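DM between two lab members

TW: hey, do you still have the TatD related DNase entry open?
JB: yeah, one sec
JB: this one, 287 aa:
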Amino acid sequence: MFKGIYNGKQHHVSDIATVLSRAWNAGVDRIIVTGGSLEESKEALAIAETDGRLFCTVGVHPTRCKEFEESGDPKKHFQALLALAKEGIQKGKVVAIGECGLDYDRLHFCPPEVQKKYFEKQFELAYATKLPMFLHMRAAAEDFCEIMERNINKFTGGVSHSFTGSAEDRDKLLSFHNMYIGVNGCSLKMAENLDVVRGIPVERMMIETDSPYCEIKSTHAGINFVKSLWPSKKKEKQVLEVIAGCKGITDIDLFSATLYQNTCRVFFPHDLDAAADALLAGRNESQ
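TW: and the structure you got?
JB:
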């Protein structure tokens, strides 16, 4: 996408360097580039190697799981993913297995039985590499949680990102001690979504852009909580502000530091940010 190629046609020159420059100038500390197929994971690792602040995942998105069988040799395809993940770990770049999971909203890309088979298979990648998982759950909570339960001891932790499920789905995910819930613009569209988000404990939450897909739009229920405007074409807003507003959180610095620590705890456990630690400690003592 950032190479300017849409549906096989070049629409603009590659602007990856410009996107990253804007991010660093805005104070972004690190970026995790998501892999969604074997080839995409290879490309994500190549991108991550261009900058010390870039990291990546290795895995197969549920809508792409047919690639295992279409490769002609699913076992060899799995071994290629494992080899890539190990290579990326040695380079200090691969921080999670994923994006993997179940997506029953888009079954035209991949049938549920194939999704389930290769979602479960990817827990073996997490077990072999001792990495956390970057997870995708869309309209598939029952099957997703059933597979998670069977494999709970195979992975160190993870996040179910871009969460749009019900309160019941939320509570089931929270019942897994090593799971976090990721929230972005797609999680904040309707009043019902905001009610569900209110029930996610801050210490079990992450926030994300899922750039460039899940911005907060003027039609979304959370728009009234947005305070900042960005000088960009889409005028993208802050997920942080909406969640703080709907949860009634006034100390936004403490809130953001906690979310940052949650993210580091899962994806960068050997590099928890000392400044954020100090901020949390100081504010907790003052309270």
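TW: got it. The two ends are 45 Å apart (CA to CA). The first strand starts at residue 5 and ends at 6.
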